[in-house]
UniProtKB/TrEMBL annotation:
It comes from the Bacteria. This is NERD domain-containing protein. Residues 37-147 form the NERD domain. InterPro entries: NERD.
Length: 301
């Protein structure tokens, strides 16, 4: 049972939208690729966990705080007698551990993921006890990329390699138990404690005038679409999407990138490069958003 699914962070959504509409700075482009690769790895692991048949509760992408310390959990499983926490890594290439340090060959040092979960473990334990939950917690670092290789790997039950993931999940499926209301209350408490705004996110710098206006294809990400009736067609990849969906996406993208600008018919008309009729924009804004103000001063939230 999934109590909380994963979604792209606002920072990643902004960078993705900007990447399709302008040339990102080298720093922003590097950050975008890093965040996107991490998200794809986490989403890949989510798909594997979705096939679990044992009694459990899944919570993804938790951001918690305890005693002034903010920490993130990629994926968490609530089982009958324990909680399993996963730190998901989408690393690609050849790596090795050496005296508590972690390197990419030839010798590029990277933050040791075992240290990351080592810091998270006691804080999460304290947080749960504070709220009356005393349940053992099992931590793992799971490497999901099939092109990841770990040399000189000593047996470490906290590390799950790509070739070990299926066996790990089979062992979980062999557990024949049932959950009760306490487990549900634990899941509800964790979701209630989740922080929606991450202090670690960085907002890229950009100006409205430097961003290309138009409609981005939901399939290939290019601006090569045309509107026919109530459908939007991509001339490059043949992606087809309903016009209503496209307009709602345009509005949400506009609100994300420019939270201080008002959403009006003329603003969305300019944002889509006047590719969509004013009548259609007005209809969708009235149908899916709340109108504020009156006459020419009206806007939508």
């Amino acid at each position: 049972m999934i109590f909380k699914e994963r979604k792209m962070s606002d920072e990643l959504q902004m960078l993705q939208a900007l990447d399709r509409r302008m040339a990102l700075s080298p720093k922003d482009h590097k950050n975008y690729q890093h965040l996107l690769k991490g998200f794809r790895g986490e989403a890949q692991f989510d798909q594997l966990l979705a096939n679990l048949s044992c009694a459990h509760i899944q919570i993804h992408d938790l951001l918690l705080e305890h005693n002034g310390t903010v920490f993130q959990i990629d994926s968490l499983l609530i089982m009958k007698e324990k909680i399993i926490v996963y730190e998901v890594k989408n690393y690609q290439g050849e790596f090795f551990f050496e005296q508590e340090r972690f390197f990419k060959i030839p010798r590029q040092e990277i933050m040791n993921p075992l240290h990351q979960i080592g810091r998270t473990a006691p804080i999460l334990t304290q947080l749960l006890r504070k709220h009356g939950f005393n349940i053992p917690i099992q931590f793992h670092v799971v490497f999901v990329n099939p092109e990841f290789t770990l040399f000189h790997a000593q047996q470490n039950t906290r590390v799950i390699l790509p070739t070990q993931i299926n066996d790990h999940l089979r062992k979980l499926n062999s557990i024949n138990t049932q959950l009760n209301q306490t487990h549900k209350h634990l899941a509800e408490k964790l979701i209630k404690l989740h922080l929606n705004d991450s202090p670690y996110q960085n907002r890229p710098v950009y100006e409205y005038d430097e961003i290309r206006k138009g409609v981005v294809c939901g399939g290939c990400g290019l601006m090569a679409v045309e509107v026919k009736g109530r459908k939007v067609y991509c001339k490059r990849c043949n992606w087809v999407e309903h016009l209503d969906t496209v307009i709602v996406k345009l509005v949400m993208e506009y609100k994300l990138l420019f939270p201080n600008k008002k959403v009006t018919v003329s603003a969305i008309d300019e944002w889509c490069g006047s590719l969509i009729s004013l009548k259609s924009i007005s209809r969708i804004l009235g149908q899916y958003f709340t109108r504020k103000g009156s006459l020419r001063w009206s806007y939508y939230e």
